[in-house]
Design a protein that fits this description.
With about 220 residues, the protein is an all-alpha fold. It has 2 domains: about 90 residues, no CATH class; about 100 residues. The chain is built from 13 helices and no strands. The N and C termini lie far apart (about 45 Å). The relative contact order is 0.07.
Length: about 220
């Protein structure tokens, strides 16, 4: 299966409603709007194909990149490759999918995070904080590291740039979910900070306000 065949298929699966939603969320007009379920089935049909994934990535098409993320062979990515990929991303959904589908299994994740630390670009900083979320979810941080992280979040969350703030806030909520001994302190600090406290969400959805987020997850896990 070659690049042109894949692009023809993606265009044929264009969904106007999905396209409108993606563009409204920040995707470029270079978007077909393929339903996520269709992309997943197609990715399963293709299988891991690193060469094709790289070709799809270069198109900058939103759907092609979302598909590429499902086809990458993470073991064939160097830190330089990843940094170049991240620097070319301008849509949050693509960034988050890249981090939580590809980078979560990357063997040099600590070295990658060190490389991202120097960036002040909002999306690159979001990627940096996404690695903390990955580590927290895997309970890979010791108590000293968690203590340090809580101090940083307490001091920087309110004034963080929008995309960075969202992921930093997610890291904070995840600490409260995964590290039970820290839950009470996380709830106390997040209530004081009040970030996303007034966030309006659709019925059935959970607010990004940390106390609401933590309590919803705990309730669902009972």
């Amino acid at each position: 299966m070659n690049l042109n065949e894949v692009l023809i298929f993606l265009e044929s699966q264009s969904n106007p409603s999905r396209k409108k939603t993606l563009i409204k969320a920040g995707a470029s007009i270079n978007t077909y709007g393929v339903l996520l379920g269709t992309l997943r089935k197609y990715a399963a049909q293709i299988g891991i194909n690193h060469i094709l994934a790289k070709e799809l990535w270069k198109t900058h098409n939103t759907d092609a990149r979302l598909l590429a993320i499902m086809l990458f062979d993470v073991d064939k990515l160097t830190i330089e490759n990843i940094i170049n990929d991240l620097e070319s991303i301008d849509f949050v959904q693509v960034l988050d999918d890249y981090m939580f589908r590809v980078i979560k299994d990357y063997k040099l994740i600590n070295e990658l995070q060190d490389s991202l630390k120097k960036y002040r670009n909002d999306l690159m900083m979001r990627a940096y904080w996404a690695i903390y979320v990955i580590k927290i979810e895997g309970q890979l941080l010791n108590h000293n590291e968690i203590d340090e992280l809580i101090t940083i979040i307490t001091n920087e969350l309110i004034d963080a740039k929008p995309h960075t703030q969202w992921m930093m806030n997610r890291a904070f909520a995840t600490i409260g979910i995964k590290y039970e001994n820290y839950r009470e302190n996380v709830l106390k600090i997040s209530e004081k900070l009040g970030v996303y406290k007034d966030m309006k969400v659709s019925k059935g959805c959970t607010s990004a306000y940390v106390p609401s987020w933590i309590n919803a997850v705990i309730k669902n896990n009972k």
